[in-house]
Amino acid sequence: MPAKNLIKPRRMPRQGRSRETVEAIVEAAAQVFERHGYAAGTTNRIADRAGLSIGSLYQYFPNKDAIVVELARRHITDIGEVAWPALEALAREMPPLREALAAIVFGTIELHARSPELHRVLFEETPRSDEIQALMWELFDRSSRLIGDYLAACPEVSVRDPYLAARMVAQVVDQVSHGAVIHPRDGEAPEVYARETITMLERYLTELG
Amino acid sequence: MPAKNLIKPRRMPRQGRSRETVEAIVEAAAQVFERHGYAAGTTNRIADRAGLSIGSLYQYFPNKDAIVVELARRHITDIGEVAWPALEALAREMPPLREALAAIVFGTIELHARSPELHRVLFEETPRSDEIQALMWELFDRSSRLIGDYLAACPEVSVRDPYLAARMVAQVVDQVSHGAVIHPRDGEAPEVYARETITMLERYLTELG
DNA sequence: TCATACACTGAGCAAAAGCTCACGTTTTCG
DNA sequence: CGAAAACGTGAGCTTTTGCTCAGTGTATGA
């Protein structure tokens, strides 16, 4: 038992091949978690699937959770890159309310539907790290603000606080989409619920009293 | 390596003390999962906490998952026993819509708030078994039906399909309550969102166009 | 009373998962 | 070229976890 207690800094990729290795690990992790779930998504299996030795994996990730966090971070980033331009377009082009809501609802459903099983594993089965939670809140806040910008400028909308309403919209749409896509039920068309959600939000936002 | 391959049937509790043992296991499991999460909620830890040997635990539960399922079943049953009478009372006593919605929203929040961390572990972190999923849907269906009975008889409600609307109400209230209670944010009063949810649903259900 | 079924014990096994490290291979760059 | 740095390898160590089983205590009823 030698007295070597050197800190082992995680290797940073410099050359091209090592960057490819990191990509391979992340992609393999996505597939493995999607197929086997969080618990059975072992580091050995990930390395196997990536066509690498387990040692290579630990050159770039200190532990299993680091891989999950990286995966979640990418997933959230991808969502933002699709959602934000679309939401910014609303405040710029100012479509009718019903159209805007349809875009938000169907857009959110589509985002959830991209890889539902991976999404489920990452955001339900995996113990939430503070880091991922912070990223999710950031996503939610920014989305809400953009929706609020649209609502505030929309003449049909007659709600007191459009930014509070926007948070309600974002919350409801996200949760309902999540439920519909991630835990679908056999005899139920998700479109019926999507349409009804749009109707509900429309009536909420256009106070006709 | 002897040739004994006898089937070992799980023991059913007959005497009083064994039934107490089962209770102790379930209660200990609740505490351990609440404190340590699903993965770190090991059978040894549960037995320890229950003041029993690990052997006793395996007399009554074939594996770890069986304990989780039993726990979830009890949790769902408990919720039903509170929720159903309350929802039945609505259709019987026919309070004004806003009062009914307030009862539903605050009641649901209270149910979620009973043991939020255990709730989170059971219904997020734990891989969903088909059995638990079925129980959850049963709970949802029955709640929706009862809400629908109220909505169908409520003169203020002017929605086409009250039972579809009821499913929307149940879905939204459950998801929003879950989000608010299980993943609370620092600077946010959940009551603001609760009130706004009530307002949203009220406007949705009373089509004034 | 005492035989029998019921109940409980806990050392420890088998399997699996996370992770290390000493060593070989490839790339870079003077 | 050739040395140093970057990169890749995989047998196997360590720890943990789910779970067993041979044996000991405890209640029950004939």
Structure, described:
- Two copies of one chain form a homodimer.
- Chain A has nine helices and no strands.
- Chain A has helices at residues 16-36, 43-50, 54-60, 64-93, 97-113, 116-125, 130-153, 162-182, 190-205.
- Chain A has 209 residues and is mainly α.
- At the A-B interface, helix 8 and helix 9 of A face helix 8 and helix 9 of B.
- The structure holds a DNA duplex (30 and 30 nucleotides).
Topology overview:
Two copies of one chain form a homodimer.
Chain A: H1 16-36, H2 43-50, H3 54-60, H4 64-93, H5 97-113, H6 116-125, H7 130-153, H8 162-182, H9 190-205
Helix pairs in contact in A: 1-2, 1-4, 1-6, 2-3, 4-5, 4-7, 5-8, 5-9, 7-8, 8-9
The first copy, chain A, binds a DNA duplex (30 and 30 nucleotides) through α1 and α3.
Question: Could you give a quick summary of the protein structure above?
Answer:
The first copy, chain A, has 209 residues and is mostly helical.
Notable features of this structure?
elongated, mainly alpha, homodimer, 209 residues, 74% helix
Shape of chain A: elongated
Largest interface: A-B, 34 and 34 residues
Q: Helical region count of chain A?
A: 9
Largest sheet data of chain A:
none
Order of helices and strands of chain A: HHHHHHHHH
**Strand percent estimate of chain A:** under 5%
Report how far the terminal alpha carbons of chain A are from each other: 79 Å
